[in-house]
Amino acid sequence: MDVQALKLEVIQYSKEIGIDKIGFTNASPFGELKNRLIRQRELGYQSGFEEPDLEKRTNPALLLQEAASIISIALAYPVKMRNRVQSKAGERRGFFSRASWGLDYHLVLKERLQLLEKFIIEKYPEAICRAMVDTGELADRAVAERAGIGWSGKNCSIITPEFGSYVYLGEMITNIPFEPDKPLEDRCGECRKCLDACPTGALVQAGQINANRCISFLTQTKDFIPEEYRDKIGNRIYGCDSCQTACPENKRIDFHLHSEMEPDPEQVKPLLKPILTMSNREFKAKFGSLAGSWRGKKPIQRNAMIALAHFKDESAVSDLIQVLKKDDRPVMRGTAAWALGKIGSVEARLALEKAQQVEQSEEVIIEINKAIENIVRVD
Ligand code: B12
Ligand code: SF4
Ligand code: SF4
Asked: Is 242 in the pocket of ligand 2 (CB under 6 A)?
């Protein structure tokens, strides 16, 4: 087999099937990454969403015995919505971050990788491939960095010279010894705009994140969001783009290369109030196709209440009172109480005082008491 010729054919085919950038690296262990992951774990900076087995994360041979190379792919996603929402005065909307626009990217990239695998096997029937996107063991960014897709920015993202950091990543381990590409030069230089833009100080230093402080992470949790972060979340109901929008490398970047990634404005910038009372079925129908629905309805509903509080939307008071009175999930009742305390109308105060008499959950009672104090202080 002529490996170099196959590499060129793979590159050519990847363009035909809508892979925006492709890079190759060898399958040797990711030694520096392993130390990094150990350190992040020791510091308590991990999100808990990462694959826990550090050996598997950093040694491709444990995932595919015959591993000889890794093909890294990147697909660019849009930054600006082409169709605007038809907003009426007073209507409040939440925001899904761009990595959750259009059809769930896991499906889109997996489909591209399947086509690539089929192509390689047709050319070389002895090929063995193992593909993954996000949920696999490998660290997609570390693979992409080594395969020359982009450099690792101070905001932690892989930044491509062509598409900025607005790219999804995926990879395929193969038994074919493709010649590796060279990593790119880091272009961050003296810039620190992402670190300054991060609302919660999650970027503790250049290229290092404390995931527990990151709004993207917080919007994906299911428990109470610690109070210190609630005001900073604003109207983000899934994910956060601030360290990318601040980046000069993303200036004027807005690629619309894949029809399935085009956002439906009503879906990714949805009205907030209807979210509070959605059934599971309604939630699935409205948001089920988005990457941002992977944690289910609860975090999105909780975040919607935080967003309504951010807007001090008095028209949401009666809906929030219903949640406080009727929802069987303490996180929902407690967050509703907090939101009512922020909005602070007479009706909100009366409802909080009533709830104070009947609420059984310790956590919720604490939220109610603080919310009442908050209203009294403002009055
Ligand atoms: C867990 C996770 C999260 C967590 C933790 C994020 C983090 N930075 O670690 C949370 C929930 C916070 C998160 C948020 C986001 N995520 Co995320 N996430 C992941 C996941 C599943 C694992 C990441 C991981 O292992 N982190 C551990 C750290 C240590 O490694 P890393 O950042 O991945 O790798 C770099 C560092 O290790 C660094 N490094 C290694 N050694 C050393 C040593 C030194 C000294 C330094 C400075 C750096 C350094 O180099 C590596 C390569 O850049 C990956 C998918 C995957 N399987 O890899 C997606 C992934 C990283 N996420 C992605 C995206 C898009 C996001 C968000 C933009 C989504 C959003 N809009 O809200 C934000 C961005 C937040 C940020 N600034 O990083 C994309 C990144 C695309 C890109 N262009 O880089 C990925 C690759 C998913 C995908 N397949 O496309 N995510
Ligand atoms: S995603 Fe948001 S909160 Fe997380 S590091 Fe970037 S700017 Fe900070
Ligand atoms: S904002 Fe500046 S420092 Fe941060 S990733 Fe972009 S270029 Fe690098």
From this structure: yes
Take atom 60 of ligand 1 and give the residue whose Cα is closest: 134
How many C-beta atoms surround the C-beta of residue 192 within 10 A? 15
| Cα 195 from chain centroid (whole Å) | 18
Question: Residue 210 Cα, ligand 1 centroid: separation in angstroms?
Answer: 11
Confidence band for 89, pLDDT divided at 50, 70 and 90:
confident
Atom in ligand 1 nearest the alpha carbon of residue 133: 89
Nearest to 100 by CA among 278, 303, 277: 303
**CA-based nearest residue to 33, from 156, 202, 195, 205:** 156
At 299-310, the pLDDT tens digits run 999 999 999 999
What are the Cα distances from residue 136, in Å, to 133, 168, 278, 310, 341?
6, 14, 32, 36, 42
CA distance 105 to 20: 14
Q: List all residues whose CB is within 6 A of at least one atom of ligand 1.
A: 32-33, 36-37, 40, 47, 49-50, 97, 99, 133-134, 136, 139-142, 145, 152, 155-158, 165, 167-170, 207-209, 211, 214, 216-217, 220, 239-241, 243
Q: What is the pLDDT of residues 203-249, one digit of tens each?
A: 999 999 999 999 999 999 999 999 999 999 999 999 999 999 999 99
Ligand nearest to the Cα of 234, by number: 2
Q: Percentage of residues in the chain with pLDDT exceeding 70?
A: 100
Distance CA 327, CA 321 (A): 10
Using most ligand atoms within 8 A of CB, pick from 156, 238, 258 the residue to mutate for ligand 1: 156
Model confidence, pTM: 0.97
Residues that are catalytic: 134
For residue 334, pLDDT over 80 is answered with yes
The phi and psi torsions of 163 (rounded to 5 degrees) equal -120, 15
Greatest CA span in the chain, whole angstroms? 79
Q: Would you say residue 187 has pLDDT above 90?
A: yes
Task: Count Cβ atoms below 10 Å from residue 376 Cβ, excluding itself.
Answer: 11
pLDDT at 84: 86
